[in-house]
Amino acid sequence: MSMTDLLNAEDIKKAVGAFSAADSFDHKKFFQMVGLKKKSADDVKKVFHILDKDKSGFIEEDELGFILKGFSPDARDLSAKETKTLMAAGDKDGDGKIGVDGG
Q: Left (φ > 0), alpha (ψ -120 to 50) or beta: where does 50 sit?
C-alpha cells in the first residue's frame, strides 16, 4: 500500500511544498493539509505503518526525520529541531518513540 492509496496525491504535493523551507514544518498544519485529520482511525493507522520503515510498531526519532519522504520521496528531511518538536508532540509516554496508538 502506498500513501496515495490513502491520501490525495495533489494534497500531499501541496502540503510538502508548503513546508519546503528549512525549519518551517508545522505538523498540525501538515497533517491537516494532507487530509489525515479527516481520515478514520483505521486509515490513520495504515499511514502510520507506511511511515514505520523498520516495521517495529513505533516511529523512532531517526525515522521521524524522514517523515516527509514517507509522503513524497523527493521531499526534504526535517531539521533536528523540527524532529525534536514533532517527537515531543507525538511521544505521549516519553520513551523516545511514537506508537501506533500515540505515545
A: alpha
This prediction's pTM? 0.92
**Distance (Å, whole) CA 86 – CA 57:** 17
What is the DSSP secondary-structure string of 47-74? HHHHH-TT-SSEEEHHHHTTHHHHH-TT
CB contact at 8 A, 58 and 52: yes
pLDDT band at 103 (very low <50, low <70, confident <90, very high): low
Q: Measure Cα distances from 37 to 11, 25, 54 in Å.
A: 12, 17, 25
Region of residue 2 (phi > 0: left; psi between -120 and 50: alpha; otherwise: beta): beta
